[in-house]
Every structure is written in C-alpha cells, then in structure tokens.
Design brief:
Layout: E1 2-7, H1 13-16, H2 20-27, E2 31-36, H3 37-40, E3 49-50, E4 60-61, H4 63-74, E5 82-92, H5 95-102, E6 106-110, E7 116-117, H6 119-125, E8 128-131, H7 141-152, E9 188-189, E10 192-193, H8 203-220
Bound molecules: 6-chloroguanine.
C-alpha cells in the first residue's frame, strides 16, 4: 500500500513509524509518506489557515492550501485513490471500514487542525470524511494514526503470526463480535483460576466456549443497539 498523510506536524509520526507492525509492512514493500502542508502553501510566511467567514472563534484551514498540497503530490489528477478527511463529524471508523481501506492500493489521509477545515475540502477534494469517535481532538493527527494503525496491521506480514488477524475482535470468524477472553500461565494466580475448559484439551469444547464468550461480550457491550 502507498499511504500518504498530509499534516502540519509530520514529526508526530516519527514515533508511529518505529512501531514493529509499521516497520514490517514497510519492509514488505508498503510506502508511507508524511507531507507537510506548509511546504507547498501558496500563501506567505507558511500561512495555512484563516479566520472564518461569518465570524466566530478560531481559525479554519484553507481549501487552497490543501488543494496545493494535493496537486504538488499527485499532479492535477489524484486518480481514483481514496482521500480521507479526518474530522469529528465524519463517518465513524470501525473494523469494517478498516478492512475496506486495507484493500486499497493507495490511500490518503488529510489531517485538519484549528477549529476546522474549509468545508470545500470535504465537498470537492476528499472522497470520505472519517471520525474515530464522539469526542473532539485538537487535530486529525492522532486520528490518522489510529486509522493507519488499524489498516496497516491488516496487511500481509504486519503481524508475526499469520492467524492473528483472522479470529480477532469483530472479525467475520467471530460473527462480528468482540474477541473472547485470553489466558496464559499461571493456571491459578492469587486464587484467580483460568476457566477449566481451556485446560481440558478438548478443542471442540474450547472452540464453542470461545464463540459463546464472544457473543456474550457483544451483547453486554450493547452491540447493535
Ligand atoms: Cl478524525 N479529528 C478530530 N480533530 N477530532 C476527532 C476526530 C477526528 N475523531 C474524533 N474526534
């Protein structure tokens, strides 16, 4: 995958790119770029934002600044790549969208800052508007890392164990439910015992127990409500 992140703070991603699963997908041929809007702003003195029409507090990222950054990177035709604007008012990011995005050969994430981004970015430059939850962050950078993390870990070679993305929370193998509980040694710790079924050696019983716990968690956490 070729993943481009447009941001005012490319250095924020220095830490992200040192994560093992991210290093793994890069070693496997994926390409990550972090592009600074300020490098291509058509305005003087690195300006990227302006005061809102109609008045009000705060500053708004300008559409011409975002457009200039996209054109400098992709030319006049961005092709048919998905361009995601990260915004608290976007479509809620979930495992289904992560799976969908992981199948894209090319992906672009646009981070906003300040009070918001000129709506014309969403209307004319982005293909999607995505939010990671019902709360407001100071900028889209952390949201972009959340999206990139969830997507990149699905790529071949990201995780050590080939099965670990198959039967995990919200996967089709678990009927879209959260993951079942995990246990490891010691079998008993401070009187807290591992469920006996997991020590039984009966694989069929274990499989059914895990599926049932997974469904139970889905119900308890208000799934589908
Ligand atoms: Cl994508 N951006 C910002 N700034 N805040 C958020 C968000 C995104 N998703 C939830 N809160």
């Amino acid at each position: 995958m070729r993943l481009d992140v447009f941001t005012l703070f490319p250095r924020w991603f220095d830490w992200f790119t040192t994560q093992r699963h991210v290093e793994n997908v890069v070693a496997a041929g994926s390409e990550l770029r972090f592009i600074d809007y300020r490098e291509t702003t058509p305005l003087g003195a690195g300006q990227v934002d302006d005061s809102p029409y109609g008045g009000g507090a705060g500053m708004v990222m300008r559409v011409d600044v975002v457009d200039a950054a996209l054109r400098a990177t992709y030319g006049n035709q961005p092709g048919d790549r998905r361009i995601l604007l990260l915004t608290p008012s976007g479509r809620m990011f979930d495992e289904e969208l992560a799976t969908e995005l992981a199948a894209e050969p090319e992906l672009t994430l646009l981070c906003g800052r300040y009070e918001g981004v000129d709506e014309r970015v969403r209307d004319h430059l982005a293909t999607d508007a995505v939010s990671i939850g019902r709360y407001v962050l100071a900028g889209g950078e952390l949201a972009a890392m959340v999206v990139a993390d969830a997507v990149l870990r699905k790529l071949p070679g990201a995780l050590g164990h080939a099965d670990s993305v198959h039967e995990e929370s919200f996967s089709a193998a678990l009927g879209g439910h959260p993951e079942y509980p995990h246990y490891t040694r010691p079998a008993s710790y401070r009187g807290w015992d591992v469920p006996a079924v997991l020590l039984s050696g009966d694989h069929d019983l274990v499989r059914r127990w895990r599926l049932e716990r997974s469904r139970e968690r889905g119900r308890r956490e208000g799934e589908g409500s």
